[in-house]
Amino acid sequence: MHADIKIKQYLRGYLHGSCDKELFKKNVPVVSYDDVKPYIERVVNGEPSNVISGKPITRFLLSSGTTAGKQKIFPVNNKFFEDMSFVIALGSFLISKHFEGGLKGKAVISTTPCGLPISTSITGYLLSDSFKNRPSNGFTSQDVVALCPDNKQAMYCHLLCGLCLSDEVVNVSATFASSLLGAITFLESHWKGMCSNIDLVILASGSPTLVAETLLLTS
């Protein structure tokens, strides 16, 4: 912590160059997002990471915007995704421990002025090396489907893969309930086309993920 304190410009106004932990606890106030927002925006617009962080910032994440009706920007580095992978792995362990068979089945990004990518936290995780190098794959869809930049195409192919492998699906989950509702609504509007594609899979005796990838490439 001491090494980081020396670097962060934000803390200099409170610690005056000191690295004392007790002074940190006494002088640095509990803040809201609005208090640190100007520092985050400075990094977004091209200033060095040490304005707000003791380690290099590699990406910005966007909140859902449900709290104040406007998305917030959060700076992160690669360690964040390593920790996120650990939390997901821990959650998978708890599910497999308490729900028999729970894990045996298959279960938009832009650039800131400083050149670093910005996205939602889930998109950031899907694009990270931690996700690409995960030890196991418990999803019905291949990565190419999850990473499709067109949300409608991705949703169509993701649901198609899930329906084709329905015998292997043991749980459906999402970070937000609204995402599940969106998937259900999408299915209600596109089920006829999906049925035709499922027939194509059966006739070709092929892989549903291969058919989904073909649809992505030809649409």
Any overview of this molecule?
One of its GO terms (cellular component) is cytoplasm. GO terms for molecular function: acid-amino acid ligase activity. This protein is α+β, with helices and mostly antiparallel strands. The protein folds into three domains: 2-59, no CATH class; 60-138, no CATH class; 141-219, no CATH class. Helices cover 55% and strands 6% of the residues. A hairpin with a 5-residue loop joins strand 3 (110-111) and strand 4. Helix 9 packs across helix 10 and helix 9 (151-164) packs antiparallel against helix 11.
Could you write a compact summary of the structure shown?
By secondary structure, this protein is an alpha+beta fold. The chain is 55% helix and 6% strand. It folds into three domains: 2-59, no CATH class; 60-138, no CATH class; 141-219, no CATH class.
Q: What sort of overall outline do the alpha carbons produce when their principal axes are compared?
A: elongated
The parts where pLDDT drops under 50 for at least 5 residues are 1-7, 103-107
Q: Strand order across the biggest sheet?
A: 2-1-4-3
> Main β-sheet, in a few words?
4 strands, mixed
Helix content: 40-55%
Distance between the termini: 51 Å
Order of helices and strands: HHHHEEHEEHHHHHH
GO molecular function: acid-amino acid ligase activity
Pfam family, one: GH3
InterPro entries: GH3
List the helices and strands and how they pair.
Layout: H1 2-7, H2 9-15, H3 21-27, H4 33-44, E1 59-62, E2 73-76, H5 78-98, E3 110-111, E4 117-120, H6 121-126, H7 129-132, H8 143-146, H9 151-164, H10 177-204, H11 208-218
Parallel strand pairs: 1-4
Antiparallel strand pairs: 1-2, 3-4
Helix pairs in contact: 9-10, 9-11
